[in-house]
Amino acid sequence: MSEAQVLPAAAAGTFTLGGDLTVNRLGFGAMRIVGPGIWGPPADKAECLATLRRTTELGINLIDTADSYGPFLSEELIAEALYPYPAGLVIATKAGWERVGPAQWIHNAGPKHLAKALEGSLKRLRLDRIDVFQLHVPDPATAFEASIESLARLREEGKIRHVALSNVTREHIERARAVVPIVSVQNRFSFADRESDFIVDHCEKNGIGFMPWAPMGQARKAHEALEKAATELNATPLQVALAWLLKRSPVILPIPGTSKVAHLEQNTAAAALQLPQAVYEELSAVSHSPVSLRE
Questions:
Q1: Prior bond to 84 cis, omega within 30?
Q2: How many structural domains compose the chain?
Q3: I need a surface site. Which of 103, 135, 168, 213 has the fewest CB within 10 A?
C-alpha cells in the first residue's frame, strides 16, 4: 500500500475533476485563515501557516480559496506556506465577489475585472495557471454569459485549466456548460440545509464535483441531532456532518476550514468515519433550515 493510500484524507476515496485532476474527497477551505469577518491578517499567522502545511501532510490535495478572503491574504498565505507546491496539489480560487470591509461583499464579475482578478491570483499564488478558477457568484449587473465567456477566453489563453461555479442555480450551471465545460459547483449544503439537494443530484448525473460550504447548518435541532449521533459514534459533531456529506454523493468534496492544526486533524479524521445507514437516514430526516452565512 502506498503512502498516499494510508494518509487520512485519502480514506474517503477520490474524485477526478475535469477528467485530469484527481483529488482526495476531503479538502480544505482557506477562508478561515484570515482575520475576523474574513478581513485582515489572522490573529496567529504562525498557526495558520502550520495549519496549511499540515494539510498536505494529511493527504489533503484540494485547497479552496478566493481573492476576496482577506482580501488577497488567503492566497498569499497559501503560497507562503506551501510553495513550491507538492505534486498533485490542486488550488481552486474564486473571483467576482469583492470584500470591501469586515463581513461586507460587493458583486464585480465583469469581464475586465475577472481578467484582472485572475492575474492577481496568479501572482499571489505564484502560479502560471490556476487549476480550478470559480466564478464566486453571478453578478446582477453583468450578463451571466459575459462572465462565463470571459473565463472561457482565459482558459483558451492557458491561464485557467478548468472553469467552475459557486453560489449558483441549476439554470446557471446549464447556461455556463453551453459556453465552457464546468468541473465543479460550490454551494451551501449540509444534512440540515438541503436547498441544493437537486443540484447535488444534477452534478452527480453530469460528473461535476460539488463542494459544499457551511457543512454544519445552523439550526438548533440540527445541532442536537449531530450531538446525538456524535455521542453514539464517539466522534465530533463536525466529523459526523462531514461523514454525512461524504456518504450523500460520490461527487461531494467537503472543504471544511479552520485556522488550527488540531482542528484540521480532527476534521480530516472524518474521511474514515463510516456512518451506519440508520444514523445517515436519521440525519437526513432533519428538516431543512436555510442560513444566511455566505462564503
A1: yes
A2: 1
A3: 103
Any domain includes 277: no
**In the structure grid, which three cell numbers stand for residue 94, read together?**
474564486
Residue 167 within a domain: yes
Catalytic residue positions, numbered: 69
- Assess if residue 184 is contained within a domain: yes
Q: How many CB atoms lie within 10 A of CB 173?
A: 18
Q: What is the mean pLDDT of residues 76-103?
A: 97
**Closest listed residue to residue 271, CA positions, set 21, 25, 15, 91:** 25
pTM of the model as a whole: 0.94
Residue 192 pLDDT grade (very low, low, confident, very high; cuts 50, 70, 90): confident
Calculate helix-pair angle for 277-284, 220-233, nearest 10 degrees: 170
Q: Is 49 exposed, middle or buried (0-12, 13-18, 19+ CB in 10 A)?
A: middle
Residue 292 pLDDT level (bands cut at 50, 70, 90)? very low
Instruction: Decide if 231 is inside a domain.
Output: no
